[in-house]
Amino acid sequence: MKIDRKSAVAISIKPVCAGPIATYIDRFAEFLAGEGYVPATIKTKCLLTADLSRWLKQRRLSLAKLDEATLAQFDADHRRSMRRGDASTGHQLLAFLRGLGVIPALPQTIDRTALDRLIRDYERFLSSERGLAHTTVMGYLPIVRRFLTEHFGGQALRLQDLQPRDLHRFILRQVRRVSRTHAGTTVTALRSFLRFLRQRGAIKTDLAGALFGVARWRLSHLPKSLPPEQVERLLRCCDRRTPCGQRDYAILMLLARLGLRGGEVLAMTLDDLDWERGEIIVRGKGQRWERLPLPKDVGEALVRYLRHVRPACSTRTVFIRMNAPWHGLCLSAICCVVRRALKRTGLNPDFKGAHLLRHSLATTMLRRGASLTEIGQLLRHRQPTTTQIYAKVDIKALRHIALPWMGGAS
Q1: Of the given ranges (112-121, 175-184, 335-344), which has the lowest mean pLDDT?
Q2: 296 pLDDT higher than 50
Q3: What is the CB neighbour count within 10 angstroms for residue 6?
Q4: pLDDT exceeds cutoff 80 at 286
Q5: How far apart are CA 250 and CA 315, in angstroms?
């Protein structure tokens, strides 16, 4: 996985380059090597850069004139010779040159419509005044935008004319096409938005109080889990002879042994690993940071991944892409790791997300005699009631307290 940056650059920057970008092509090649691109790819990208530089010289355009519009004109002039990936390389080059400050930065996006400005103000309210996590904010905004777009269309935002029936109609349309959990999030997001509108004086009445919640009875379902032997099969299915297998194994160990949420694994940085104390810092829900002891087998899996798989790169995120560019994983990647492992193992549970291993850990602990308090501490639940759902999986204990059926056999 390691790339010798000097050899990669030596291979890649040999094309003759004339024009305003010539001064920066060596540094661009170094940047690409640092992002994890192989020498052949670096060479291809530098060839395109050299072509673009010569084109700018022929057109008598200075480097300061290079922007998206100029790049589009270059692409149009070379449409017949353009290769797959050339367009993304052009935008990658623009971002690199802007980072050096040699071409003007992108002009700030102007919120031209009243809807855009309102959404921007609401986003600032959620982040600055409410202190909500970025993922929560990004979940609320599309719901609010969809409601405003469907209700007002292209007309003026007459927020003062909103009525409870307008909100109810929107929610009823949503619950027919989404899960009950997402329907509940829709109501929560709209309540938040309506409180924001009332706080800024855009509406006079408390419309948030007119929204009824979606029926989601607490503790009404059993947590989906795997028995311990299936969890071990899941861990063994990773081919640790391959870089991807070692990375996925380390991810699964964090999920299975510590019960971390998928987002917590995703957010983990190199600074969160305290090797001297044998602890890790978990960036949990509600922007809380907590320390957990690092079990030996989990620590060994992380060490093997960090020493032999993870390349040296600029990002501090622990788990990164296996292919260039070397960035942190996307939000759905952790669940994909679990799904791929389930498929390799031949397991087909009803629920296949990252939370499956969190539930499995809690269920196994309970059946081995751990108290609900101990489970709640490991899973970092804020309220003891959150852990109570796991009491339902201890069937033997429930039988001792269950009332006898009046129609039972005599």
Answers
A1: 175-184
A2: yes
A3: 10
A4: no
A5: 18
Confirm whether 105 is domain-assigned. no
Residues 114 and 242: their CA atoms lie apart, in Å, by: 52
User: Average pLDDT over the chain, rounded to whole?
Assistant: 85
Expressed as residue numbers, the domain containing 165 is: 114-208
Query: pLDDT band at residue 157, thresholds of 50, 70 and 90?
Result: very high
| 8 A C-beta contact, residue 326 and residue 320 | yes
Contact 45, 37 (CB under 8 A): yes
> DSSP of 244-274, one letter per residue?
HHHHHHHHHHHHHHH---HHHHHH-BGGGEE
Same domain, residue pair 255 and 330: yes
- Per-residue confidence band for 183, with pLDDT thresholds at 50, 70 and 90: confident
Q: Residue 218: pLDDT above 60?
A: no
Query: What is the set of active-site residues?
Result: 261, 285, 355, 358, 381, 390
The verdict on residue 403 lying in a domain is no
Is residue 39 domain-resident? yes
Whether 40 and 132 share a structural domain: no
Encoding tokens for residue 86? 């050339």
The Cα-based distances of 127 to 123, 138, 146, 192, 287 in angstroms read: 6, 10, 20, 12, 12
| Count of C-beta atoms within a 10 Å radius of residue 50 | 20
- The whole-angstrom distance between residue 311's C-alpha and the CA centroid of its chain comes to 21
Q: Is the sign of the CA dihedral 251, 252, 257, 260 positive or negative? A: positive
Residue 109 belongs to a domain: no
**86-100 vs 39-58: helix crossing angle, rounded to 10:** 80
pLDDT-derived band of residue 164, with 50, 70 and 90 as boundaries?
Answer: very high
pLDDT > 70 fraction of the chain, expressed in percent and rounded: 87
Q: What is the CATH number of the domain that holds 200?
A: 1.10.150
Return d(Cα 13, Cα 30) in angstroms, integer: 10
Same domain, 257 and 355: yes
Distance (Å, whole) CA 305 – CA 246: 6
The pair of three-digit structure tokens given for residue 161, joined into one six-digit string: 């004319």
pTM exceeds 0.85 for this model: no
- Residues 301 and 314: beta-carbon distance below 8 Å: no
